[in-house]
Write a structure and sequence with these properties.
By secondary structure, the chain is an alpha/beta fold. It contains five helices and five strands; from the N terminus they run E-H-E-H-E-H-H-E-E-H.
Length: 120
């Protein structure tokens, strides 16, 4: 039985160009990506559990606090930030500007550690 492609959710509410670039790079690496431009819709995605990693821009208001309340979810979160901040409880934190080779390595490590919470 073959496993489906690793799925990565990418969340940004401001910089849709960076969002599109991250999705493009990960798609070329064989990942299925789901861009999210409305952080309020993330709840239904998180509830589905059908993802291997979530890349979140720390600038999205309140998103880290919401994700940290769910340790099984937070362990799949890769935060991008231009500032120094407490990112305890998440998989990784990447400083912006992003180095895309490093992003791919971190996503690969996270996705290999985590499989979707559901089998859909």
């Amino acid at each position: 039985m073959s496993l489906s492609p690793r799925k990565v959710v990418v969340v940004a509410d401001r910089d849709v160009i960076v969002l599109a670039l991250i999705c493009h790079i990960l798609t070329r690496q064989g990942y299925q990506t789901q861009p999210v431009t409305d952080p309020h819709s993330l709840g239904s995605i998180v509830e589905s559990g059908n993802f291997d990693a979530i890349i979140v821009d720390a600038a999205v208001d309140g998103i880290l606090d919401k994700l940290r309340k769910r340790p099984a979810i937070a362990s799949r979160v890769i935060v991008t930030t231009a500032e120094s901040l407490d990112v305890s409880g998440v998989w990784a934190c990447l400083q912006r500007p992003l180095e895309f080779g490093q992003l791919v390595q971190v996503v690969r490590a996270c996705a290999n550690q985590n499989r979707p919470l559901t089998d859909s």
